[in-house]
Design goal:
239 residues, mainly alpha, disordered N terminus
Length: 239
């Protein structure tokens, strides 16, 4: 039979069904993830970063295809345009991001405390709603997601090794090696790479992006495990 969430109407947690599913859990966690004391990124901010990233990829591919496929003059023009779009895109996106999130840097401790308060309220409501499901369902879901998280961690270790703990350092190191001898105005030299080097750079960036995606998925699995474990603990004593 259908069950209603205790105290969930004000927190945005909808009514739940009699069977616990990961889809339902995803929706509830996503509600918490979407809650923020900061304004949401605008479309201009999002597309600024997307344009900059796309321009960087196109510039690398054009430089890698020169001079065997594209004449050097045309490649230099395209690379210069891509570099300009990349710089403007990341600059605009960075300014808009700083303007939107200046509060957490101006008052970091207060902003963090307020954000934790909001997250805790939704976290507590979600745990209470999870306890409405039969204990056997929660235990089964917990065992499965724990095994899935363990397997994903092992696969990431085989693919990325210790690099997954270095954050943006590999990309910064690669950019330094690429631009260490570059001088302002030498736009063609900024992307002076051969086809093999261009493909390697593109593969590195692609693997790095996929790695961040896998980290995000694993973080969500950690959240599921934490919630299910908390829901299986003895309920809080109400005075």
């Amino acid at each position: 039979m259908d069950m209603q969430v205790r105290g969930g109407a004000e927190e945005g947690v909808p009514a739940q069904t009699s069977e616990l599913t990961y889809s339902w859990l995803y929706e509830q966690v996503q509600v918490r993830a979407d809650l923020s004391i900061y304004p949401k990124p605008s479309q201009v901010e999002k597309w600024s970063f997307r344009s900059g990233l796309a321009a960087a990829c196109v510039g690398l591919l054009v430089a890698a295809a020169s001079p065997s496929v594209i004449p050097p003059i045309q490649a230099a023009v395209v690379a210069s345009i891509c570099l300009l779009i990349e710089v403007v895109g990341f600059l605009v996106g960075g300014v808009l991001t700083a303007k939107r999130e200046w509060r957490q840097y101006a008052k970091p401790r207060l902003s963090h405390a307020e954000e934790m308060d909001g997250e805790f309220n939704h976290w507590r409501t979600l745990i209470e709603s999870l306890r409405e499901f039969p204990r056997k369902q929660r235990e089964e879901r917990l065992r499965f997601v724990t095994a899935l998280r363990q397997g994903m961690t092992e696969r990431m270790g085989l693919m990325y090794g210790g690099l997954q703990k270095l954050g943006p350092f590999p990309v910064l190191a690669a950019l330094y090696l690429q631009f260490r001898n570059w001088e302002w105005g030498d736009w063609a030299g900024a992307f002076d790479v051969n086809l093999v080097a261009g493909l390697l750079i593109f593969t590195m960036v692609l693997m790095y992006a996929v790695g961040w995606l896998m980290v995000a998925v694993r973080s969500r699995l950690d959240t599921y495990v934490s919630l299910l474990e908390a829901s299986l603990q003895p309920e809080w004593v109400t005075i």
